[in-house]
Design goal:
The protein is an alpha/beta fold. It contains 19 helices and 16 strands. Helix 4 (61-71) packs across helix 5 (83-97), helix 12 crosses helix 13 and helix 15 crosses helix 18 (483-493).
Length: 522
């Protein structure tokens, strides 16, 4: 029997009149959509529960989502971030459908096809808009230009993909170009084995990998589809498979014959890398006034080696408390210039200060002092346990007045939080004498958080001081806190314990950044 892909290729080479004559003979069986040979067909046939399809512009992402809704699923939800963008996708779907019969143009727009399929169209321009789809089950979710959505929106909508029909497959497809802002960089974390060049075990395009959600709400990769039981829990969880299939303009037989590639060539960087080349790792430009450049963080993660901690004693521990809230508590262990993989503790497990102190005791070595965030008012009980166990510590309150000035520019800081972040920026600066020696673990979430904050240009103009963006503003933008970054930054802000650094100047030198002031018992 002839392979279907070979048959499609042969048909595609026929003159238009001959192709129309053949299709007319089989009009009753003519499908509304046939995937193009290559990646689009591979994506169509992929067994992944969650598929990322995209990369280059013009690779047929939207058409794939439309085709699956029209041909393979009974109840579908097709999403775009804005209503305007959604309208264009609806028009394209109706063209494939061949008729507007069954279309409802009143919000939420929907289509009932002649063969009994139900397709709904939605948008979620603002955080929280996705809640309108709570409880509305679909066996297929397609999110077009997925990196335009917030990560929380995507994960929320994926939670309602289900069916009671045992014969109907459920799946999620995220179609997108690489992100062009930090808001969409979550996609790299969700598909790390394929997109993150720092991943220790990279995956091939189309390869299935299996993931569960750990008790902290984070993705956790497992070996296969077998139910996974987390330590300390009773009910095993079922892993879901993911994969990434890159799409290219050359794979789209319709656009590949046009001058669309020339238009992509004319784009300026970094849009050209994102849209023309489909580069997920280097396409995103830094935001204006971004405190820590993305490339500096990337370089620090590339310097990281798993056993480099052996070169140093433990220098300090940064601890970002949660106080039982939704955010996780995070512990950052620093060995000189090397940072260990972060320890994350579920927020609901952090109400007990004794339990939090015990986590520090387990993680602590070499008499290292703890830098603990007291700004949220959650650290009191934990500090009492530190006193009981004679553990040296620093109180870190980011709202306190800043001291010192930035290296090079001599610009002062509006508060301690700004100063701590700026000191970390200076420690990562590759232009300092000898370059940067900081080594950060290959943690995608950490990279996203370190690169998120900007400084307030208006405050700088008025007062002549640096002031970092507030935590609340960052949370609104990212739909997450910067707990991991804060813990790492605190661990660096106060340096090597039990060392005296004599300086009367408010201007820190790189050596002072690394060694820090003498530990004081509180």
């Amino acid at each position: 029997m002839q392979d279907i892909n070979e048959l499609i290729q042969q048909l595609d080479k026929l003159p238009q009149k001959e192709l129309q004559a053949i299709m007319a003979q089989y009009s009753l069986d003519k499908p509304k959509f046939v995937p193009s040979p290559g990646p689009q067909t591979e994506a169509w046939n992929s067994k992944a529960d969650i598929l990322l399809y995209g990369g280059q512009a013009g690779g047929g992402k939207t058409a794939l989502g439309i085709g699956l809704a029209l041909c393979s699923h009974k109840r579908s939800l097709l999403m775009r971030r804005t209503q305007v963008a959604l309208g264009a996708m609806i028009d394209e779907l109706l063209k494939f459908n061949g008729t507007r019969d069954g279309y409802n143009g009143k919000p939420p727009q929907s289509l009932r096809t002649s063969d009994g399929r139900f397709i709904e169209f939605g948008h979620a321009q603002n955080a929280g808009d996705e809640a309108a789809w709570m409880g509305r089950a679909h066996d297929f979710l397609y999110m077009d230009e997925a990196t335009h959505f917030l990560e929380n929106q995507v994960r929320f909508l994926m939670g309602w993909v289900r069916t009671t029909d045992a014969n109907q497959r459920c799946r999620v497809v995220l179609g997108t170009n690489p992100p062009i802002s930090s808001d969409g960089e979550w996609i790299v974390g969700m598909f790390r084995p394929w997109l993150d060049i720092t991943h220790p075990n990279p995956a091939k395009p189309g390869e299935l990998r299996w993931f569960v959600t750990d008790p902290d709400g984070k993705d956790f990769e497992v070996d296969g589809p077998e139910p996974y039981l987390f330590p300390g829990t009773r009910k095993p969880v079922k892993p879901l498979s993911r994969t990434f299939i890159p799409a290219r303009l050359s794979d789209n037989p319709f656009l590949a014959r046009t001058d669309y590639d020339a238009k992509l060539d004319s784009l300026r960087e970094p849009l050209r890398s994102a849209i023309r080349d489909g580069n997920f790792m280097i396409a995103r430009p830094d935001a204006e006034f971004q405190v820590i450049p993305t490339q500096w963080v990337h370089d620090a993660q590339m310097r990281w080696e798993a056993d480099d901690w052996k070169k140093y004693k433990m220098t300090s521990i940064g601890m970002d408390c949660a106080g039982g809230g939704d955010d996780a508590a995070v512990i950052a262990r620093r060995h000189g210039t090397w940072f260990a993989p972060l320890i994350s503790i579920k927020g609901s497990d952090t109400l007990d200060g004794t339990a939090m102190a015990l986590e520090i005791i387990r993680a602590r070595k070499d008499g290292a002092p703890v830098v603990i965030d007291v700004g949220g008012g959650y650290a009191g009980a934990t500090i009492e346990r530190f006193k009981d166990n004679d553990i040296p510590y620093y109180r870190f309150n980011g709202a306190e007045k800043g001291s010192g000035k930035s290296i090079g520019t001599g610009i002062p800081f509006a508060n301690k939080r700004t100063e701590a972040w700026w000191r970390f920026r200076e420690a990562l600066n590759p232009d300092q004498e000898g370059g940067s020696v900081i080594a950060l673990p290959p943690d995608t979430d950490l990279r996203i958080e370190l690169c998120a904050p900007t400084y307030d240009a208006r405050t700088f103009e008025v007062s002549g001081k640096y002031l970092i963006e507030s935590k609340d503003k960052i949370r609104q933008r990212l739909q997450r806190s910067t707990d991991r970054a804060d813990a790492v930054i605190m661990a660096l802000y106060y340096g090597e314990h039990a060392k005296k650094v004599k300086t009367k100047s408010l201007h820190y030198s790189p050596k002072v950044i690394m060694n820090g002031p003498k530990v004081r018992r509180k």
